[in-house]
Amino acid sequence: MNILSVTNLSIDYVGATSVFHAVKNVSFDIAPGEFFGLAGESGCGKSTIAFAISRLHRPPALIRTGSSIEVDGRDVLALDDDELRRFRWREVAMVFQSAMNSLNPVLTIENQFYDVLNTHTGMSRPAARDRAAELLELVDIPTDRLSAYPHQLSGGMRQRIVIAICLALSPKLIIMDEPTTALDVVVQREILQRIDKLRHKLGFSVLFITHDLALMVQVSDRIGIMLEGELVEVNDAQTIYRAPQHDYTRKLWAAMPRLHGAQTAQDAVR
Amino acid sequence: MPLLSQLLQNKKAMVGVVILAFIILVAVFAPFLSEYSPTQRVGRPHQPPSLDHWLGTTRLGHDVFTRLIHGARVSLAVGFGAGLMIALIGTVLGILAGYKGGVIDEVINFFTNLVLVIPNLPLLLVIAAFVGQASPLIIAVILGLTSWAWGVRVTRSETLSIRQRDYVKSAEMLGEPSWRIMAFEIFPNLISIVGINFIGSVIFAVITEATLEFLGLGDPNTVSWGIMLYNAQNASALSVGAWWDLLSPCFALTLLGLSLALINFAIDEVANPRLRTGSMLGRWKRMVRVGEGKL
Amino acid sequence: MAFLLRRLVFYLAAFIAAATINFFLPRLMPGDPIQIMFSGAGSNLSMENLNALKLTFGFIDAPIGQQYLAYMQSVFTGDLGRSIKYYPLPVTELLGRALIWTLGLVGSATIVSFVLGTLLGVMAAWRRGTLFDTVVSLLAIFSSSVPGVVISLTMLFVFGYTLGWFPNGYAADPMLDPEFGWTYILSVLHHGALPMFTMVVLLTGGFAVTMRNNMINLLGEDYIVMGRAKGLGENQVMLWYAARNALLPTVSSLAISVGTILGGSLVIEVVFNYPGLGNTLYQAILARDYPVIQGQLLIMTSAMLVSNFVVDLSYVLLDPRLKKA
């Protein structure tokens, strides 16, 4: 059974006089433990899809009837408010684009773990603190940081803490929306390696969203390419890299500067 | 101008403008709307509203309706006059402080904070007490000279965020003189803030003038809504049951305040789409109701 | 810490500014400043008493610099002179009594309005686009564009005269002796209800709009979305993620509105004949009791400064980002 099954997903932004079709009839699946990358330029709809999986959209966004989103066989679009609340973070967790702003500025790190642990499992404070320490260890953050506030920590640390909070309820799918764009390349690599290690250890799937195709090829199992709301190509990473099928995918590769002079000349001919 | 056309389509703005226009027209045509003079004794004291006197008479036998429509002139004049002064000083100082920065900013900021921290009405009262019976003109001047602080703050913070923008930087590179940049690059982008500041200042001026006159600091010979309140209060209008004497200027002030507030609210909505209330989601709601989609 | 110290220095400067205004006002008006200041005295005061008063206010036979210093000395030693109307009652005592009544009225009204207004603002922002939001926003805007005078008079008319639910003036039944007995306290509460209610009507709107706008400005922030994504309850996100953060700018705007609050209370006290600072100032103006008038300005400015400082303190407590400093 696929962890995520998206079928005929269409999402519109409804304006006063016109409608913007952000996502047009997109279908793809993610298998358990798979690392799936969704690539495309800004505004192509990849973040819109990410938000839709946990149904985090607000008006004027609208998920059109006929769309289907299933997580581990469960119809996400059919969940009522209570079920949805319980579903969130337990089944699907999310890392947002700038972790700098993902943490509530007025809560200590400990409280940011406590509120989600307590709400979902009724854990007491001491138990939550232990669990939080456990999770921080997974991302190599010293436990004394529990009493700190977000602004007292560096960007990289905050990002790792968000990842740790994501793992709190052992979700089946973690969505990462451009998690490393705001960080330098060294930290980027570190974080991706860490995610990979955790993935192999804990077995969750990853939906990884970025505009950086080259980065994605290094870490993903399969990749989907989006263009203006449509999914134009889905394939395993190596095929996307060596033998892109769709015109747009080829253009994406061609747009990237290469380090090897001879190959550049060859690509230009292609 | 996109701002203006959007405003004209805004219901709240329209209602506000219509009411305001109505009040202005009444004020302008006051002498033609009533056969009485506002300062002459034309009836018996404290007569209830009747066909002869639509809003009754005051304790001195003046026609309340006539005084009301003539009073509109003074309240509007002081309101807009002082409001203009307040907004002007506030905007100029705010742009100067925000754009120039450095010492100019420090100095303006310091004095603005100082003025802000001294309570407004008590200060005005003390000044008015020393001035004696203040005519509406003097009241307007005093208001203009003391109440600009809030506008400076707001304008300054907007200017600070605008001054980093590309078109300002490029104008600086081209060597445009400061005053030109402030007037032609920065100011046009502050229009909605300045507009809100202006109308807010007018509201403030109208309210404060009425309050000062109510407290007996105005010239009792003026015909204005504030003085009407003052006279009614002194005549113990409420205790003797002459409610029309007191509630007429109350109603007029409320109406004027409401119309200005609506206009201000509308400007804010148009300029700040995020702060909008209701109605923008009509189409979306319909689609959800019909079952075309969900969140 | 440095933050608080800077604020204290500023407040000191503001206080000196107010005293300076006091010093120059009579001297800037046309005519003899001494005549203006003590015109209300008439034959009330003996020569020596008058001279003592002159000294307090710096009207000595010396250059203006020394006059200024003399006045400042009086102010900083707590000598605000004596009331001309109620001679020889010291201004500080007169104002001190009135201050208690004003604190009761303004204090309770501000707390109630702040809590009520903030809650309404939070709910209006959370339910943005609904009828609730539109109604609350419009009502709030209206209540701040109508003069306090008008609201007070209308309240008095409806609830005091027409419906007769509340008395028409004074802090308590004039027939009763002030004491800490039950009858007196009940009378105080009964008399204070309408002025306080009027003040709440006057202030709530402003707080509601401020909180609403502050909330809306941060509703797009990532941590709000993350709060919802975490599966936390709507109310929990609304209160602990949104409102708790929007509270910071709202509290700082509270500091600024203290001036308006004092002004509003002044008008309400006059309309309801409530013996607070505002009414005392008003009576002093009618009697041209300038020592009291000037003392008022200082006391009210001090009230502003103290409440600003209290807000500064709570800001430091509320915002973890300031704690580090």
Helicity level of chain C: over 70%
Q: Averaged pLDDT of chain C, please? A: 83
Give the total of beta strands of chain B.
1
SSE order of chain C, one letter for each helix or strand: HHHHHHHHHHHHH
Task: State which percent range the strand residues of chain B make up.
Answer: under 5%
CATH topology of chain B: MetI-like fold
In whole angstroms, the N-to-C terminal distance of chain B is 35 Å
Descriptive notes:
- Chain A is of the alpha/beta class and 270 residues long.
- Helices cover 39% and strands 24% of the residues of chain A.
- Chain A has helices spanning 46-53, 81-87, 99-102, 109-121, 125-138, 155-166, 185-202, 213-219, 237-242, 247-254, 261-269, and strands at 4-14, 19-30, 35-39, 61-64, 68-71, 74-75, 92-95, 173-177, 205-210, 222-227, 230-236.
- In chain A, the strands form two sheets. A six-stranded mixed sheet of chain A has the order 7-8-9-3-10-11, sandwiched between helices. In chain A, strands 1, 2, 4, 5 and 6 form a five-stranded antiparallel sheet that branches.
- The model of chain A has no long low-confidence stretch (mean pLDDT 87).
- Chain B is mainly α.
- Chain B has a single domain (2-289), classed as MetI-like fold (Orthogonal Bundle), CATH 1.10.3720.
- Chain B has helices spanning 2-9, 11-28, 30-33, 64-100, 102-117, 120-131, 136-146, 149-162, 166-173, 178-186, 191-214, 225-234, 243-271, 282-290, and one strand spanning 293-294.
- In chain B, helix 9 (166-173) packs antiparallel against helix 10 (178-186) and helix 12 packs antiparallel against helix 13.
- The mean pLDDT of chain B is 84.
- By secondary structure, chain C is mainly α.
- Chain C is built from 13 helices and no strands.
- Chain C starts with a helix and ends with a helix.
- At the B-C interface, helix 5, helix 6, helix 11 and helix 13 of B face helix 1, helix 6, helix 7, helix 8 and helix 10 of C.
- Strand 4 (61-64) of chain A pairs antiparallel with strand 1 (293-294) of chain B, so a sheet runs across the interface.
